[in-house]
Write a structure and sequence with these properties.
Length: 180
């Protein structure tokens, strides 16, 4: 999925914003969940993006860990960018290794899409609005007002992560997928 998103996402206007066919997504998810072979290259890239966001939303406790939710939310309230980056790196160090590996690939994809935002209309802000709710959610539900404020803060964090991913994850994030 990520490889396809890395290849096609940068040249696809509105990637992650437009949804794939709900019926197709449901059918493919059932096939994937049953272990059947699925050739996503034959599907719309919007279906792949929708399936990927659904996958992220189904990670128990979220990929950024709901247990660290308060700490993630407070990162953007810190001083300068260097302090924010150091705080983010400390939080990343507290995540399971599998989460960190997946995060590096996710932000490698987002970086590639952002680099061609003039073509695809998906700058770091737009990407964050679309992807942030799939990366972190609070451990307990709350009022709509609190949830709206939370979403804004997490979107701001994801925008910052996207814009600074090379400094946070290392320059090699731009070549994780090799020459595709």
């Amino acid at each position: 999925m990520l490889s396809l998103l890395y290849q096609e996402g940068p040249s696809t206007e509105g990637i992650f914003r437009r949804s794939g066919s709900a019926k197709t997504c449901k059918e493919l998810k059932e096939k994937l969940d049953s272990g059947a072979e699925v050739d996503l290259a034959c599907e719309s890239i919007f279906v792949t993006a929708s399936l990927f966001k659904d996958f992220l939303r189904n990670i128990p406790g979220s990929i950024l860990s709901s247990q660290l939710c308060d700490k993630w939310v407070s990162v953007m309230d810190q001083g300068n960018n260097e302090e924010k980056i150091r705080s983010i790196q400390r939080l990343i160090d507290q995540l399971p290794r599998a989460n960190v590996v997946l995060l590096r690939y996710i932000f490698g994809v987002l970086h590639g899409i952002e680099m061609r935002s003039e073509e695809n209309q998906m700058n770091a802000f737009n990407l964050a609005i679309c992807i942030a709710p799939s990366l972190l959610w609070p451990p307990v539900s709350s009022t709509p007002d609190i949830e709206s404020e939370f979403t804004k803060k997490i979107s701001s964090l994801v925008q910052f992560l996207t814009e600074n991913c090379c400094r946070i994850f290392g320059e090699e994030i731009t070549s994780l997928f090799g020459e595709i």
